[in-house]
Amino acid sequence: MITKSIPNLFTIGNLFLGVLSIILAFNDRADGAALLVIIAMLLDGLDGRVARALNVQSEFGKELDSLSDVISFGVAPAFIMYQAAFSTDVSEALAWIVTAIFPICGALRLARFNVIEGIPGYFIGLPIPAAGGVLATLALFSQDLNVYLLLLATLALSFLMVSSIKYPNFKKLGLPRAAVWAVPLVVAAAIFLAFLFPRAIPRVILGLLLLYAIWGLKKNVDTLVSRRRKKRSRDENPRSKHSA
């Protein structure tokens, strides 16, 4: 019974950090709020791997994970961005609408993931932890970026979550059962580094997540271009044979 509960403890930790990040955001502490979202991403990546390593996957854990992700990577990053940039620099109506769209698209993304069988090795649409991580860390640079660029980035991330673009899921990078004991040490080390380098860590995470988001978009464009070339080649071949 205790073994079955271990992955859920990581998920609850993820949810707890998501709620705390919302509280920090409304107390004008965007830096701390974004760091909590980043740590929540780590816990979210570990809960499933720990469950598979211990062979204790369950529908309850899957649903709890989705509900936690809506808070930690949908609602929390949206509020962080709202407090950091949207609440003062754009009209209320626009700020409220764009802020609401992000977690709504995140919820739609998670609902689709839960009911539709995906492609092995891939996610369909940008995963909400990646989208939320990008949005939360982007909010840290709100003073350096134009607010309308941030609005567009929020809408773009929302679209990518509900799109049909394929993203690798890295689930093959599992966690050996013998290494489960080291997971708390990894989490503790990550928390220590995050608060030791509160500006550097978000920059690194933002760069990695942006590469991931753009990679999936580029891969999709390359596939579309390749298909069009093949179709054009098939259309031209019969014509050349007819003329010969």
Automatic annotation (TrEMBL):
Q: Name one GO molecular function term.
A: CDP-diacylglycerol-serine O-phosphatidyltransferase activity
Q: Which Pfam families match?
A: CDP-OH_P_transf
Tell me what reaction this enzyme catalyses.
Answer: a CDP-1,2-diacyl-sn-glycerol + L-serine = a 1,2-diacyl-sn-glycero-3-phospho-L-serine + CMP + H(+)
UniProt superkingdom? Bacteria
Q: Where in the cell is it found?
A: Endomembrane system
The answer to whether the entry has keyword Magnesium is no
Membrane topology is: Multi-pass membrane protein
Tell me which Gene Ontology terms the entry assigns under biological process: phospholipid biosynthetic process
E.C. code: 2.7.8.8
Q: Give GO cellular component annotations, separated by semicolons.
A: endomembrane system; membrane
Task: Tell me the protein family, please.
Answer: Belongs to the CDP-alcohol phosphatidyltransferase class-I family.
**Name the record gives this protein:** CDP-diacylglycerol--serine O-phosphatidyltransferase
Provenance organism: Cohnella thailandensis
